[in-house]
């Protein structure tokens, strides 16, 4: 387990991966002017605000999370992130593989992936446990301590806040048959120089009509969706220690600088820092 810091003015971000927790990834960051582009994760993105205020858009609504509150974003749900106060916000995030939450649900006497209807939660006890778990991983505390804290945290979240079963994948289920065809094309040909016309033709719609239906179904424009897919694949390749410059070309970015710009808007850190962890 290792981590790397990235500092730019008043903004700081540290990203690391904990192999003892099935590859759960962690982010400790302070952002003052940084704004996340619309994006989604394959994992549950869960965290707590330590200082300041984060504003974000999620499930079609603008949200605000303040210091001491927790945020839950489910897999496949498009969202943004930006300062909700002049001095920005500092938070501790977990990116938790879905199978771990499935195991937590089983421990809580449930089946399937847990669905969290609330995205902002005010629960000082759980927030304190979340921070303690995050710090334990950051400091590299003994494996048994990290595993015990982690299992307890996930099980408690399920017991207190899960509201049924999460159905995956999310986006195609909300889309028309035509838009699902376009999503499939974007998923398989993301590294190609796709055009709006090509995607619209796959959907059997006019360009403008398609762009609106696609955004309604996915929460992202067609361009952002393709960029998201490229970033997701870039993360996978960077985890294998592939060089960032090579990864950029493989996933369809014009060059490493192009990938870096979009990667940071999605992940909060540069590809080089992500790979170096």
Automatic annotation (TrEMBL):
Organism: Pendulispora brunnea
Residues of the signal peptide: none
Matches recorded under Gene3D superfamilies: Homeodomain-like
HTH araC/xylS-type domain sequence ranges: 180-277
Keyword Zinc: no
Pfam families reported for this sequence: AraC_binding, HTH_18
Keywords: Activator, DNA-binding, Transcription, Transcription regulation
Protein name: AraC family transcriptional regulator
Segments forming a coiled coil: none
């Amino acid at each position: 387990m290792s981590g790397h810091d990235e500092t730019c003015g008043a903004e700081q971000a540290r990203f690391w991966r904990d192999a003892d927790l099935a590859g759960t990834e962690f982010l400790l960051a302070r952002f003052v002017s940084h704004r996340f582009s619309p994006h989604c994760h394959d994992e549950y993105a869960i965290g707590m605000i330590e200082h300041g205020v984060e504003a974000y858009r999620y499930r079609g609504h603008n949200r605000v999370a303040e210091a001491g509150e927790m945020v839950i974003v489910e897999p496949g749900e498009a969202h943004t992130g930006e300062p909700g106060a002049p001095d920005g916000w500092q938070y501790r995030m977990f990116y938790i593989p879905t199978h771990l939450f499935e195991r937590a649900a089983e421990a809580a006497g449930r089946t399937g992936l847990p669905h969290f209807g609330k995205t902002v939660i005010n629960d000082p006890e759980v927030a304190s446990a979340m921070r303690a778990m995050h710090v334990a991983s950051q400091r590299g505390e003994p494996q048994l301590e990290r595993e015990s804290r982690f299992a307890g945290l996930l099980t408690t979240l399920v017991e207190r806040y899960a509201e049924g079963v999460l159905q995956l994948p999310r986006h195609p289920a909300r889309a028309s048959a035509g838009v699902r065809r376009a999503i499939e094309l974007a998923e398989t040909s993301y590294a190609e120089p796709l055009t709006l016309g090509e995607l619209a033709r796959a959907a059997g719609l006019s360009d403008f009509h398609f762009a609106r239906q696609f955004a309604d179904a996915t929460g992202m424009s067609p361009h952002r969706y393709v960029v998201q897919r490229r970033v997701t694949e870039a993360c996978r390749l960077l985890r294998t220690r592939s060089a960032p410059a090579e990864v950029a070309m493989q996933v369809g970015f014009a060059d490493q600088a192009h990938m870096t710009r979009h990667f940071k808007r999605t992940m909060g850190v540069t590809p080089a820092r992500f790979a170096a962890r």
